[in-house]
Amino acid sequence: MAKVLITGGSRGIGAAAVELFSSRGDQVYFLYEKNHEAARGVMACTGATGICCDVSDGTAVKKAFAETGDVDILICNAGTVHYGLMSMMTEEKWDRIFAVNVKGIYHCVNAAMPGFLKKQKGCVITVSSMWGQVGSSCEAAYSATKGAVIALTKALAKELGPSGVRVNCVAPGVIQTDMCANVDPEVLAQMAQDAPVGRNGTPGDVAKAMAYLADAEFITGHVLSVNGGYVI
Fold this sequence. Notes:
This protein is α/β, with parallel strands linked by helices.
């Protein structure tokens, strides 16, 4: 049984990951920012432990890890998005997206590191996006952060490999979560049609990819595209 910590675990991909890892018999903790009702629902369904924590706040992350103790698997899933022209985007919003999507990983990996180094073993899974691989119009900040996640994953894999810590990344495509709530249904339908597998993804699709990377002991520094072939 592994001890797993999943950030952004109250909804979407994170909630699916909490459910899957809990079903494997792992001891699962998850962080969430503010949706207490959703977090209570996930806890009730899975038996996992939810901790309210904004990953962009380093002090809050340290307190959360003090509650969990050393973990075996860290899944950095928390993220936020902004749709619109970059020229119309405020600096505050730009900074917030980077604070959550990139700096949040910095805080969480550093908080998990003492336990990893003590055991000389650990697994980190980050969450990028296909837009971090190819970029997306009107999602400049999001694409930039997700590209940074890929670079950070590869760098940490090289840096931490000698200490027994593997670092991999999943890069989801169009996944049916509330992040798609503002996308025209016709656009979503067209994107499903354009994917070679003929559909958009589900949170469970990504959770399964995370579980694979968690178990794949000879894989590190890899970006696993979970996009139905939309970006190849």
